[in-house]
Amino acid sequence: MGHWAGRASGLSCSLIALASVCTSASADDVALDVKRHVLDNGMTILVVERHTAPVFSAYIHYRVGSANEWPGMIGAAHLLEHMLFKGTTTLGTKDYAREAPLLAREDSLRAQITREENRSRMLNFQRSLGLADVEDNAPRIAQLTAELEAVKTALADLVEKNEYEELYNRNGATSFNAGTGYDGTTYYVALPSNRLPLFFEVEGDRMANPILREFYAERDVVIEERRLKVDNEGDAKLFEQLIGTAFIAHPYQIFWEWKSEVAQLTRPKLVDFFKRYYAPNRMVLAIVGDVSAEDVFALADHHFGPTPRQPDPDPIATVEPVQEGERRVCQEFDAEPYLSVGYHKTAFDDPEEIVFRVIHRVLSDGRTSRLYKSLVLDQQIAVHVSTYDFPGSESGDLYPNLLGIDVVPKAPHTTADAEQALYAELDRLGREPISGDELQKVKNRIEADFVWSLYSNLGLASNLAEYEARAGNWQYLLTVRDQLAKVSQNDIMRVASIAFRPQNRTVATLVPMEPEG
């Protein structure tokens, strides 16, 4: 695709308004030379030059996720992530001039069919009552459906399938993917260094001129994902019940969009969602590798600079009420018993959040962790135990969230046995100080994981973008390390004794289905 190559190569770095900030931060053995540049439209770019191999990794973080959806738009963030791989006015199409009116006609026909189908319910009811002169709209629906099929056929002939992915693959891309979280949506890729102009041309075009083609087929793909990853998986169904019970108000309560919600999403609705949230002032781009920061900033100015800033959407106003008593829920499924327990905990900016990071490790990091040693090795009550944060962003979650604990009982022990053993260990953590050696071992492991996470270009790029998006400054990444060093044995006891109270607890149990008959 020659029309993607080299349009930006003639840019002169001398054109850059070098408002960039070069910050050298170090903590013990880690030194990061991060160059930061903010475009006039609010887009933030972070660059770390690493000239060890002729490649770079790019990580884009948009400050929008599933938590930003509302009734009638549930599933929009996830579906939009899929749709942004469908191309632009020049990518993914054989003739956009012919395609555009057909796309508009497809939307119009589908809207008309939906209205008629909704009317059918009332018409059928009136007909069942024997009322006179009830309209029969079936012929109208059949006419609209026939025209829709003709439009779909015409559109299919104009699509250049998978051109976005193939373009990157032909140019040596690896790690090309995306993901939708609750507080953010990410896109990332690794490319040879000499493909930096191509990256900016493709991604700048994706932000400025996205076309949500093949929308309704992709909507069906997202619906199918739920069937495969939730409806047919016992632990996923249990988890859905856990968070739907633990949260009664906040958008974190929805684990996976429902078919009925996704099925009524339309292309015009998603275009509006894109315009509201995919603004340059809600975007962070981090690039790490064999690049020049000045080249990166020049290309960013050229390809993203013309995209205008958008007003910030209203923040999420709903605050999850304080839980005032234990909640319990049971899920029947054809699977072995499973226990999942959740405790409400703090958002990323709460001083206690760093303490929870340590508590996680004390409880379930490896075979010498407290829960594994007690439940799996010593008492042999469980075959598996683990802890996690939900939603679980690397930089911490934007709103108060959950600390979850999963236990798989070992037969003949029950979920009730597992519960009692689990609560005994959690209670001990709130009553007895852990040893200095145990605390230091956990801190060392967190520190080691932190260092290793910066080793790869993609790992460092993702950390920089995530922490910049969450805290407004990537250096929060280093501040967390300082906070970690100050966590004491008393901090762990104090936080555990408050968090692990029964009234802050939600318990979900998976119970095998009784055989019929």
Question: Can you lay out the helices and strands and say which pair or pack?
Answer:
Layout: E1 21-27, E2 30-38, E3 44-49, E4 55-62, H1 76-83, H2 96-128, H3 138-156, H4 163-170, E5 174-180, E6 185-192, H5 196-208, H6 215-231, H7 234-246, H8 259-262, H9 267-277, E7 283-289, H10 293-304, E8 327-333, E9 338-345, H11 353-364, H12 370-378, E10 382-390, E11 401-409, H13 415-431, H14 436-453, H15 457-471, H16 476-486, H17 489-499, E12 505-512
Parallel strand pairs: 3-7, 8-12
Antiparallel strand pairs: 1-2, 2-3, 4-6, 4-7, 5-6, 9-11, 9-12, 10-11
Helix pairs in contact: 1-6, 1-9, 2-3, 5-10, 11-17, 12-13, 13-17
Description:
The protein has 517 residues and is an alpha+beta fold. Helices cover 45% and strands 18% of the residues. It has 17 helices and 12 strands. The strands form 2 sheets. A 7-stranded mixed sheet has the order 1-2-3-7-4-6-5, with helices on both faces. A 5-stranded mixed sheet has the order 8-12-9-11-10, with helices on both faces. Strand 5 and strand 6 form a beta hairpin. The longest helix has 33 residues, at 96-128. The chain is globular, with a radius of gyration of 26 Å. The termini are far apart. Mean pLDDT is 92; it is low at 1-27.
